[in-house]
Amino acid sequence: MGKASKDKRDIYYRKAKEEGWRARSAFKLLQIDEAFSILKGVHHVVDLCAAPGSWSQVLSRRLYLPALQMGRPESAPKIVAVDLQPMAAIEGVTQIQGDITSSVTARQVISHFHGEKADLVVSDGAPDVTGLHDMDEFVQAQLILAALTIVTHVLRPGGTFVAKVFRGKEVSLLYSQLKVFFPDVTIAKPKSSRNSSIEAFVVCRQYTPPPNFSPSALQGLLASAAAEQDSRGEPSRAERLIVPFLACGDLSGFDADQSYDLPDEHYVSLDPVQPPTAPAYKSALAAKRQNQQQPREEE
Ligand SMILES: C[S@@+](CC[C@H](N)C(=O)[O-])C[C@H]1O[C@@H](n2cnc3c(N)ncnc32)[C@H](O)[C@@H]1O
């Protein structure tokens, strides 16, 4: 790491300590909000993959505490945070400990809203990286798809979804899938996210589910799209559809600080590559730990 980026990291690290944020990641959400005003008018919000909790702190300080200070606790926003890990309590934040890719956790989040809708869903999820880029990007993509499934149940039309992505060569497929639900999808690279990292954030605005869409239809919708798009004339298999993108780890052509225009197509066809299985992911992780390989930087 060069001196300049080291200094930059130290600035956000120090600032986080000074301002009482649990992680320097807080600045990523704050900078996304500066650029896109994602917190404006937000009442209910879901923070997926929230631990140790700096994004939840931002949500609490920006949304919940002001309502309390105005003496209106009854109209205070609802903030729900979910993570595999437990995290220390944050004022105004309800915590659910669980795996967002499991239907049990998804149902817990959905039922928490009692039919009310959220204005904003954020997801800063990152898997435990193996160092194998294809696999890491695949697992990251699974998190985004799980988050998107929750979004289709809890986000109000017109609402916003922000999620961390790893920008691999096939990331345009993910954009295309998001564009099915959001007419406005932008990729953002906040200054506090290291240039050396392939992470970026999709800012998806104006949630507009397709006509006649109901959340349980998500799988069917993607299935029929893939069937139409299967240019090889092979039968489409439902299991391919949970592969949001197939990553190759090739970052050439991506400028970390630039915003990209997104492809117009709603779908691109998927190659018939089997996703890594959970045992393959686990053994890759174990191998990484054994060989002491350097994981890719995430922040
Ligand atoms: C980069 S951290 C999030 C940082 C957080 N936004 C903050 O500001 O403190 C990524 C988190 O994703 C969580 N995570 C990864 N996979 C998950 C899953 N399947 N379900 C729930 N949380 C998950 C990890 O436990 C980790 O806490």
UniProtKB/TrEMBL annotation:
Signal peptide: none
Cross-referenced InterPro entries: RNA_methyltr_E_TRM7 (IPR028590), RNA_methyltr_RlmE (IPR050082), RNA_MeTrfase_FtsJ_dom (IPR002877), rRNA-MeTfrase_E (IPR015507), SAM-dependent_MTases_sf (IPR029063)
Catalytic activity: cytidine(32)/guanosine(34) in tRNA + 2 S-adenosyl-L-methionine = 2'-O-methylcytidine(32)/2'-O-methylguanosine(34) in tRNA + 2 S-adenosyl-L-homocysteine + 2 H(+)
UniProt keyword tRNA processing present: yes
Its EC number(s): 2.1.1.205
Record field: compositional bias (Polar residues): 289-299
Binding site for S-adenosyl-L-methionine: G53, W55, D83, D99, D124
Pfam families named among the record's database cross-references: FtsJ
Localisation per UniProt entry: Cytoplasm; Nucleus
GO BP: cytoplasmic translation; tRNA nucleoside ribose methylation
Keyword entries, A-Z: Cytoplasm, Methyltransferase, S-adenosyl-L-methionine, Transferase, tRNA processing
Gene Ontology terms: cellular component: cytoplasm; nucleus
Catalytic site: K164
Annotated Ribosomal RNA methyltransferase FtsJ domain residues: 21-207
Role description: Methylates the 2'-O-ribose of nucleotides at positions 32 and 34 of the tRNA anticodon loop of substrate tRNAs.
Family: Belongs to the class I-like SAM-binding methyltransferase superfamily. RNA methyltransferase RlmE family. TRM7 subfamily.
Name of the protein this chain belongs to: Putative tRNA (cytidine(32)/guanosine(34)-2'-O)-methyltransferase
Species classification: Eukaryota, Viridiplantae, Chlorophyta, core chlorophytes, Trebouxiophyceae
